[in-house]
Amino acid sequence: MALVLSSAFASAIDFDFSSPERVQKDVAFEVEISASSAGSESYDVKIFVGQANKQFSEIEDNGQWRSPYRYLTGAFPQTRVFRVIAHFTGESEICVRLRKSSTTRFDERCKPIEIISNNEGNGEQNAGQSAEQQEGSETAQDGEREGRENSTANNPSESFGMDAQESRDSQTEQKLGYGSNEEPIELNPLPRTQLNEQKLQTYEKQTHKIAGEEQQTIVGIEGKKEKWVLYGFLMFCILLIVLLAMNKLN
């Protein structure tokens, strides 16, 4: 009995592993195993997420993805970093089992892990990029502001010229009545000169003249219409008299 217990403790290994706490579904991630008492012995490795079958996760073995149900024979410590992929979403556990080759007893360590969908992962990545771009833009603006301040400090004549220009602009606005605290000065309209009055009278006469000519034209047209009606009536009367005369002769 003592011999069996001693052999069991001798096969045990004290190890730990590191892996991401949050991964994306169907996206490979790495699991690194570390042990202080591995020695020269070889250990079989089994790593799985949720359950040890292909529907939940897979492990990479020599460039091929395979079910984590079977151990990778003699993989540790020759290989310390392994690639794993999860096929579901939600909160679960990732477990690593090590057993000494040619034995059935194993040691297991598990840690919590969250598997998110690809859409959630892309959204977080885009949000991170937007935040970095915003920080970069703010940094650039701060740099430009500091550059202008340094330029002003190194060139006082330029600053003085800008201040003088602003002062002249302010005086011009005050003269024109556009000061910040003053109402604009209303300029009185220029008085109408005698020349303008003569032009206005000439324009009015021409307007009356044109209106009179148009009225005369209309009256002339109406008079012509009345004359044609009268002529027509006279012709009708003459024709009627001729017909009556011819009728009496017959």
Summarize this entry quickly.
With 250 residues, the protein is of the alpha+beta class. It has helices at 2-11, 118-154, 156-176, 194-249; strands at residues 15-18, 22-24, 29-35, 43-49, 57-61, 64-66, 72-76, 81-86, 90-100, 106-116.
CATH architecture of the domain at 2-120: Sandwich
Q: SSE string, helix = H, strand = E?
A: HEEEEEEEEEEHHH
Poorly predicted spans: 1-9, 178-187
- Discrete helix count: 4
Globally, the shape reads elongated
This entry's quaternary arrangement is single chain
State the helical fraction: 40-55%
Mean pLDDT: 77
Strand order of the largest sheet: 1-3-8-5-6
Tell me the structural class.
alpha+beta
For the report, how would you describe the main beta sheet?
5 strands, antiparallel
| CATH classification class of the domain at 2-120 | Mainly Beta
Task: Could you tell me the CATH topology label of the domain at 2-120.
Answer: Immunoglobulin-like
- Kindly state the number of beta strands: 10
